[in-house]
Amino acid sequence: MLALMKTIHQTLNTTRVVDFLAPLALRLFLAPVMISAGYNKAMSFESTVAWFGNEEWGLGLPFPLVLAFLATATELVGGVLLLIGLLTRYIALPLMVTMLVAMATVHWEHGWFAITPTNPATSMAAPLAKVGFPGAEGSLKNSVEAGERLSRARAILKEHGHYDWLTEKGGFVVLNNGIEFAMSYFVMLLALFFWGGGRYLSLDYWVARRWLPPETV
């Protein structure tokens, strides 16, 4: 058994046959996310500019027209480049910047969770609160309160609405809009920045094979 484990370990650490699958998976996951985000901004560009610049109900950013255009173009073009694996490392940088801006201006005040945990017993905040992790106690309290509100909302809908029809396509949740998704995308982009687009199924690989020394590919 020990010899088998050693062989497996050595194989995993020396083979490069399938190491292209990880960056490929990240690219295929991120590409539609970025394209969709950019497309939605482009299709309602005036509203996007207004949201970027308005201080009362928007982000209150300076130069909203310029920033809205840059965000839209970065996500649209970046999504396409990720899809085909071209200039992967270079486009990962501005996409990471958009994620950081999104976290700082939109999601930061809401904490970590994108969807509020409504069951304190299974909330990630529970074990963190036990060890005194900063902010975990507040997140756990928020889970309790959110769970109470969600239970009340379900009771009202079951009594006065067509609950089975309303939940046919998915259950109701409490949207928290924290940094969870944006941070996850940032980490994926960071991995692509260091890995590149991967071998075989990215244009970066074939361009490198054509123009760079063989030992660098």
UniProtKB/TrEMBL annotation:
Topological relation to the membrane, as annotated: Multi-pass membrane protein
Keyword Cell membrane attributed: yes
Pfam families, alphabetized: DoxX
Main location: membrane
Keywords (A to Z) from UniProt: Cell membrane, Membrane, Transmembrane, Transmembrane helix
Compartmental location: Cell membrane
Record field: transmembrane: 20-39, 59-83, 90-108, 182-201
GO terms under cellular component: plasma membrane
InterPro entries in UniProt: DoxX, DoxX-like_oxidoreductase
PANTHER family: DOXX FAMILY PROTEIN, OXIDOREDUCTASE CATD-RELATED
Family according to the record: Belongs to the DoxX family.
Protein name: DoxX family protein
Organism listed in the record: Alcanivorax nanhaiticus
